[in-house]
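Researcher: Quick one. two chains, 363 residues in total.
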Amino acid sequence: MKQHLLNYVLQLADNALILGHRISEWCGHGPVLEQDIAITNAALDHIGQARNFYQYAAAIYNELPDAERQQSFAAPVFSGKKNITEDDLAYLRDAWDFKNVLLVEQQNTDWAFTVARSFFYDTFAVAQYGQLQSSKDETLAAIAQKALKEASYHRKWSSEWVIRLGDGTEESKTKMQYALDNLWPYTAELFMPAPADEVMQAEGIGVDLTAIRNEWQTYITAVVEEATLRMPESAWAQQGGKTGTHSEHLGYILADLQFMQRAYPGMEW
Amino acid sequence: MSKEWPLWEVFIRSKTGLDHKHVGSLHAADAQMAIENARDVYTRRMEGVSIWVVESRYIHASNPDDAEALYDPANDKAYRHPTFYNLPDELKYM
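Model:
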């Protein structure tokens, strides 16, 4: 049960960290100064949410008996450590121990892809945090309450851009549609329950992914319609991220993110 | 059509303030984007509770060359100042 809770919290944390890192890549490269600041703000929001979840995950791990600890991660990166911290979870796990969905690790490609990825994720996050506010787990409920406000603003931002580009010029419309179509196969995984999702939902701690899917679908359809775009057609669904099978992109993200701690273990600044 | 987005002037009312104060300007495609950009550029450190934006081209300014004619004549007219009244204590914001 505690093991499932740990995995569940790590799913929440890893989604936030990896998307936050991805969009932080725009820092200093935004199309205009104002949007550079906007997207960097959002990146920091995501990373802040990730920190809250990692702190909680570390506390859960630190209370596990030794035998269970050994089953927590595929690689024994924490063996010999009495207590781990949020930083250990972010900087020392390798790709197969990350539980984020494949959607958030996809490349920025261009502004339309960046917007589409956030649009799909933010809409999911609003529904997810909305439900999580009434979780039986008080820590998760408290984090969700704070995160929901940020997620609502992120969703507003990304929806605005979908509409602006979709209902813009011929070129912006083509690019926006192309981005939605290409990221669509990564959306179904958001709603596919991993073992941790199932156990946590049954315990009244986790969210109901079926209900979230309905809410998500309704919102996405309305915005896509307003943007004069068409809904992507259902296709093959990419999956695996939640249980540690990732695309090649995650390795590059982690190389970027973890280089310092791996080259200079324990370094502080 | 110009490639640059138009310029907007941003006014923010702070928590304790009664009026919107000019804080700066930014580029945006339309009013809605201007408000959102203002939120991200000018209220990151909890500066405000209300945002106004107005497109810069709608602001008409006085000519600095006219300064003497416009303002100097007020210099020697002390009787225009309400300094000869005693204000009751209950009166605030004067």
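Strands of chain B lie at 7-13, 21-27, 50-55.
Researcher: Thanks, that's what I needed.
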